[in-house]
Amino acid sequence: MRPLRATLATLALSFGLLAVASASTSPATAPAIAWRKPDGAKVDAIFAQARKNNKPVFLYWGAVWCPPCNQIKATVFTRPDFAERSKSFLAVYIDGDTPGAQKLGAQFKVMGYPTIIVFKPDGTELTRIPGEVDAARYMEVLDLALASSSSVKESLATALGPNAATLTPQAWRQLAFYSWEQDQAQLVPEKERPATLRALAQACPPAHAEAATRLQLKAAIAFGQNKTALPAPESTLARLREVLADAALSRNHFDILENYASDLVQALSAKASPERAALVAAFNSSLDNLAKDTSLTRSDQLGAVQAKLDISRIDAPEGSKAAPATTLVAQARAAAIAAERETTDAHERQAIVPNAAHLLADAGLLDESDAMLKAELPKAISPYYHMLVLSSNAKKRGDKAAALDWSERAWKESKGPATRLQWGSGYISKLLEMSPQDSARIEKAALGVLAEVSPTPETFYERNRRVLQRMGKQLLAWNDKGEHQATITKLSRQLDQVCNKLPREDEARKACSTVFKPSNNKV
């Protein structure tokens, strides 16, 4: 299982939710920040103003329900130094439920939340800032972008070319702290990312040790995620051991150690080998230090304990339900309770509570996880997100009825057209998985979701389009023997009423009209 951020993102994705915001409120910010919102799918006026005033553009793509987004709202956007920096750029906030937002998502190649892109005044993309680093490092990476005259893409070309020696230390740091996980092939095709990161790590001068280490570790992670062997892993393993053994280095790279512990262990050691056991022990020691490090946010301290849980199960048989060690369960309980108790900011709680509840559930403390989530529902910013964790907990218990009921409630209480479409399709997906025989409930849910589909082209861009196509594919698979054809026909006719209102030559009409076609095999 992946670390907290990645796991909760996967949970959202399993309900069809990743990369869609939920309501149209602005981020929690210091009052001095003048957030601009696009007029529908039009951003030309904002970039024209940027050119006129010779100011960069800081584009934040966030979600009201998204835990990492709320962490940034609570720890970065409320900082006085961020408010001061905002005077030097145009701050743009895009919410996925506003008109045209999904079209902008396609334009800017946005897939996950939070995504933050910095543009030059002329509209050229400078860099993408990762959301996992702590607030102080975030500000450093932002400053690097604002002070840079070269984009990350230009620096990448230089770093891999004959003039690599001319690249500045600042440019190397930008490459190392680029949000590679959210690149969306802006710099390199996905399949080339592992080799590119390795080439960068090899080209980075030894004098830039932190950047070189980060690139080296990211390369190992990318190779592992691509299911390919990392060439000559010995040097990376040796460097990782140095990082784990040094408290300062571990702190510098805590986001990598926490979010990708399992990836690194699996990429750099053989299953059930003595080398793996030694590496896991070194990780545990480092993660214990990070879990107690009060210079980290509560969310990051939780992440350290979650990473310990993740690597404790690396060599367990697939599907194994073996309980974690008693001491690890106690550590997870104590960390979750302390984080929930000590967090008072509403935005930070939207991040902390589901993170803490997931940690409890992953440690086998499902009842305690449920109790924490249910107590938070009346006061949460977006309680419908917490309901997804409750649904997941019920599924872990084998309680399909409760899992479906929480998923249905999450859909019914969700806010915003794009979010409701995605939450609803996620509920349908769960119905098809856990109660495929309940055709009446499936038909009612699917008709309810389609009833809210707006007959505008913007509805069929980016995530909305993918979610509808996925839902169509799943329903067609459910009807593979033709026993539910009446339902499919009814759904197809309802959607056709929407499709027929779209401009005939618009790509949106084609996307709409193919949802319930057997040839629809892309999601």
Explain what this protein looks like in three dimensions.
The protein is mainly α and 523 residues long. The protein is 59% helix and 4% strand. It contains 26 helices and 4 strands. It has a 4-stranded mixed sheet with strand order 2-1-3-4. It is globular. About 4% of the residues have low confidence.
Instruction: Provide the spatial order of strands within the biggest beta sheet.
Output: 2-1-3-4
Mean pLDDT: 91
Low-confidence stretches: 13-31
* Total beta strand runs: 4
N-to-C order of helices and strands: HHEHHEHEEHHHHHHHHHHHHHHHHHHHHH
Proportion of beta-strand residues: under 5%
Biggest sheet, in brief? 4 strands, mixed
- The assembly state of the depicted protein chains is single chain
Radius of gyration from CA coordinates: 23 Å
Bin the helical content: 55-70%
Terminal residue distance: 23 Å
Strand-pairing-aware structural class = mainly alpha
Approximate shape: globular
Count of helix runs: 26
Q: What's the gist of this structure?
A:
The chain is mostly helical.
Descriptive keywords:
523 residues, mainly alpha, 59% helix
Secondary-structure topology with pairs:
Layout: H1 4-14, H2 44-53, E1 57-62, H3 67-75, H4 80-85, E2 90-95, H5 101-107, E3 115-119, E4 125-129, H6 135-147, H7 152-159, H8 169-176, H9 193-203, H10 209-225, H11 234-245, H12 247-252, H13 254-259, H14 261-268, H15 274-291, H16 298-312, H17 326-342, H18 346-362, H19 366-376, H20 383-397, H21 400-413, H22 417-434, H23 439-451, H24 462-478, H25 485-499, H26 507-513
Parallel strand pairs: 1-2
Antiparallel strand pairs: 1-3, 3-4
Helix pairs in contact: 3-18, 7-8, 8-10, 9-10, 10-14, 14-15, 15-16, 16-17, 16-18, 17-18, 18-19, 18-20, 19-20, 20-21, 21-22, 22-23, 22-24, 23-25, 25-26
